[in-house]
Design brief:
By secondary structure, the protein is mostly helical. It has a single domain, classed as Cobalamin adenosyltransferase-like (Hypothetical Protein Ta1238, Chain: A), CATH 1.20.1200. Helix content is about 60%, strand content about 5%. It has five helices and two strands; from the N terminus they run ββααααα. It has a two-stranded antiparallel ribbon. A hairpin with a 5-residue loop joins strand 1 and strand 2. Helix 1 packs antiparallel against helix 2 and helix 1 packs antiparallel against helix 4. The radius of gyration is 18 Å and the shape is elongated.
Length: about 180
């Protein structure tokens, strides 16, 4: 039986895909960890979507797969590179959902929450924004391909639109920011 515990990280160091070992507190691992957390939150979202949202479930599963590729690229794996196709698909799905919403859907500040799936999407969206910030911080140390930052920026937009769409389709009455 293979043991998952290698004990090589017991002293606070771990390795990138290229074999370089460094502190677990390095910006690389903050960014990679944020991407991993985002992937996990998207998994929670998928588990909370019912059959009515089958297309969204399937697209989110594709996104999860691509987040592994993106994470491998950030971890400096030589063969893995996220493709522009992901950016294009995220943008297309975002536009498709926006067309299904009311014309004024984007004119108000909405409080996070609503349908349970939409509430989980709000969490995934904020983690996506954190992952984007971590990657921007990492880019001060190591060049990050611009497509990666674009994908995360658009993905957070898509997640926001998806939460609005889920709430719309489940007839949840959005709670607006009152500014009080």
């Amino acid at each position: 039986m293979v043991n998952v515990s290698t004990k090589t990280g017991d002293k606070g160091k771990t390795g990138l895909a290229n074999g370089i070992r460094m502190s677990k507190a390095d910006p690389y691992f903050s960014a990679i960890g944020d991407l991993d957390e985002l992937n996990s939150w998207i998994g929670i979202v998928v588990s909370h979507l019912d059959e009515k949202f089958k297309n969204e479930q399937e697209f989110l599963l594709y996104i999860q797969d691509q987040l592994f590729v993106l994470g491998a690229e950030v971890a400096l794996a030589k063969k893995k590179k996220v493709e522009e196709k992901l950016l294009i698909l995220v943008e297309e799905h975002c536009v498709r959902l926006q067309k299904k919403l009311k014309k004024d859907w984007h004119t108000k500040f909405l409080l996070p929450g609503g349908d349970p799936a939409a509430a989980w999407i709000d969490v995934a969206r904020t983690v996506c924004r954190r992952a984007e910030r971590s990657l921007v911080g990492l880019s001060n140390k190591q060049p990050i391909r611009p497509i990666i930052l674009k994908i995360l920026n658009r993905l957070s937009d898509y997640l926001y639109v998806l939460r609005c769409y889920i709430n719309y389709e489940t007839n949840y009455k959005e709670k607006e920011f009152g500014g009080k």
